[in-house]
Amino acid sequence: MARQNEALNDKGTLGRVKGWFEAAVNSKAYTSWRAEAKTSWDFYDGTQWTGEEVQRLTENGQPAIVINKIAPKIDNLAGSEVAGRTRIVYRSRSGMADEEVAARVLTDLALYVAERSEQALEISNVFRAGLVGRIGWLDIGVEDTAEGVEVFARAEDEFSVVWDPLSRRSDVSDARFVARERWLSLEEAKALFAEKAGALKSLQSDVHGPRGSVPYALAYGARGDEVGYYDPQREVYRVVEVQYRESAKQWRIRLPDGRLVATFDKSRLRIKGAVVEEMVYVPRVRVAYFSGDILLDDRALAYEHNSFTLVPFVYKRQRADGRPYGLVRAAIDPQRELNKRRSKAMHLLNTAQVIADVDAVDDPNVLVKEAARPDGVILKRAGKDLRILRNTDMAVSQVQVMEQAGRDIQDVIGVFDEAIGKQSNATSGVAIQQRQVASSMNQMFAFDTLRLLKKNLGMQVMALVRQFFTQEMVIQITDNLGAGRVIKLNEPVRDATGKQVKGADGRPLVMPDLSAGQFDVVVEEVRDVASARELEASQLEMLVRAGIPVPPDVLVEASGVAGKERILAALQTPITVNQKG
């Protein structure tokens, strides 16, 4: 009976998550976004003519010219993010000394996590994906490595992610689900879903066919590929991960030290001295995996932050259907016009019209060939009419329209030539400065949305650190002299006899206690740094500029100059003065 109920539950879960995924993949908003995003990336990458257009131009002897005005402007905006990177800082709400220490440690750990996972580069990739492909995704989680548990933040391919088409908020916080697909070999699937490996093989059989049991109309994946859940050519399976929300019991308990915590874990109710204040039903994030008609796994999210691990950066969303769009969309039409006008102008300059009597020359083919040459020689019969008309005026008009299209690209993207260092028709310094300021103002919306992404990142990193960094740890970030910041985590508190002290709930006390206290996530508008050593050096530089006397050996030790060992040795060697007398 229990197995029968479990099978019914699995079938219900499979029908729900599979229905969400397939309905979203085939929704008008998602299919329109997918087609537009692919076009946007093509234009950014320089593929701006269709195959049919290139073939037609080739038949007419016309060049398919591409003058990519979009990519430099997107790169300029993406470069502004790199040059002005911000960092995540945690602030204590209470201001108590212990919480202030924990907040500083959390800030150091956020920098440590960013260093280990190349977080700045991943965020930059997500930002550029949002500008071009309209939406970018950052995947946040933990993984086991040879050095222990590590927190990662990676850019996810936006074409492998599907979201709730009914969602309208830019951070997808109102979505019922977020899904992504993976192509796995049978061996990879066995490692993840050992109990379901045999069932996966059924997708290869004639019963299901190469598409699995999914209807033809729903066979398209997130990328729009016309395949189902098994690809016989590559012998891989499409495994779909669906993160969704489901109502669940949550207990809010008062711990012996006075802290109020919320938990889905019923075992925490047995903590010594804990008092249950209330029980409520709240949405809880669960994760399901399926392939075809096979539910591979379904369980509650292992992370206590209870949020989707896929965090989006959305430039803008269309109000009618929630479809994301980026900067490139508005520039596609003027960019296409610019290319076509340039191609037409070149064709007009390279060709000429000939008006002649039928018997004006001996060989008309020679006439056509020589008329097209700038140094052509044409021999005509006396008394016969022969005129060669150059298309210069028509070419000039095409160039003028082309130049207007180039200005239109600047207007719709909002990044003017002055902002990327190009010469323009602005002659005065005031005019140039005004256009540079206008470019900066147009970028504010994108950076404001990026701030939301970083804040969500900071909240999840804090939750993961507090959940998984529970063992006594010493994290040392050093330079080549061994100097730097040493972070001690969960150091046991001992009494005068060396015995470990326990709290009111019976748990050993540790310092700093990252599980205690409430902290605000702040995205500071300061220059980001690549390492803790660079952070210390920049802070020391600020102290020196403020007029605070900093010992020279401290400045040298925090710097990154080569051979600073010799400089420190010279500073520490006492200077002797020879006295003659």
**Count of alpha and pi helical runs:** 15
What profile does the largest beta sheet have?
7 strands, antiparallel
- Span between termini: 108 Å
**Helix-residue proportion:** 40-55%
Structural class: alpha+beta
Q: How much of the polypeptide forms β-strand, as a percent range?
A: 15-25%
Which value, in Å, is the CA radius of gyration?
33 Å
What's the pLDDT, averaged over the residues? Answer: 81
Identify the overall geometry.
extended
Counting DSSP E segments of at least 2 residues, the number of strands comes to 20
Which stretches are poorly predicted, pLDDT < 50 over at least 5 residues? 206-219, 478-483
How is this structure best described in words?
This protein is of the alpha+beta class. It has a domain at 2-48 and 66-326. It is 40% helix and 22% strand. The protein has helices at 2-25, 28-45, 51-59, 70-83, 97-116, 119-133, 186-192, 197-201, 327-349, 364-371, 392-413, 429-468, 532-545, 552-558, 564-572, and strands at residues 87-92, 135-145, 148-156, 161-163, 177-184, 230-231, 236-254, 260-263, 275-291, 294-300, 310-314, 316-317, 324-325, 352-356, 386-390, 473-478, 484-489, 491-492, 510-511, 519-524. Strands 4, 5, 6, 7, 8, 9 and 10 form a 7-stranded antiparallel beta sheet that branches. Helix 4 (70-83) packs antiparallel against helix 6, helix 5 (97-116) packs across helix 12 (429-468) and helix 9 runs antiparallel to helix 11 (392-413). The longest helix has 40 residues, at 429-468. The radius of gyration is 33 Å and the shape is extended. 29% of the residues are buried. Residues 206-219 and 478-483 have low confidence and may be disordered.
